[in-house]
Amino acid sequence: MKKALSLLGLLFLVTCSSSQQSAGPNVAIHLVPLNTSSDVFYFSGPINVQYQLSVANPTNQPIKLRRLELQTIGSGAYAIRNTSSPMNVTIPPNSSSTFTISVWGYSRGGYLRSTEPVTIRGIGYFDAPSGAFIKMFTENISPM
Predict the structure, then answer these.
(1) How far apart are CA 132 and CA 125, in angstroms?
(2) Can you list the positions of beta strands (E) in the chain?
(3) What are phi and psi of 79, to 5 degrees?
(4) What does pTM read for this prediction?
(5) Tens digits of residue pLDDT in 105-118
(6) Which CATH superfamily is domain 27-141 in?
(7) Considering only Cβ atoms within 10 Å of each terminal Cβ, which end of the chain, N or C, has fewer?
(8) Nearest partner of 116 among 86, 55, 72, 60, judged by Cα
């Protein structure tokens, strides 16, 4: 029995350690909240949240952001359900592009909750001359 459990544990470790990383370029994605203060999140209900999205392209080829998915992880001042937004933004080679996006969320409400940090997980879907790739990122945002 111990031998079987050891074998299963070893198999699990080998499987986890051999998970593939993205074969795409090292693109950096960064979210910054716009026009938000903790007062906006004091009352519970639907809210519109705006972000400044920056995408840095370190390659010598243009890349195109096709789609962006955002979702909050855990609790925080507000929650964003899994939103998928089609995009059509080309980022020139060896440069970065910045633009504004807007998503709907839900404020939890309350004085103490309105200042809780929010963790957002995002997935960017890109097209490049070398092929399609995805880039996952997380961002910790503190309402001011």
Answers:
(1) 8
(2) 28-34, 45-57, 63-73, 78-79, 83-91, 95-107, 118-127, 133-141
(3) -125, 145
(4) 0.77
(5) 998 888 778 888 99
(6) Immunoglobulins (2.60.40.10)
(7) N
(8) 72
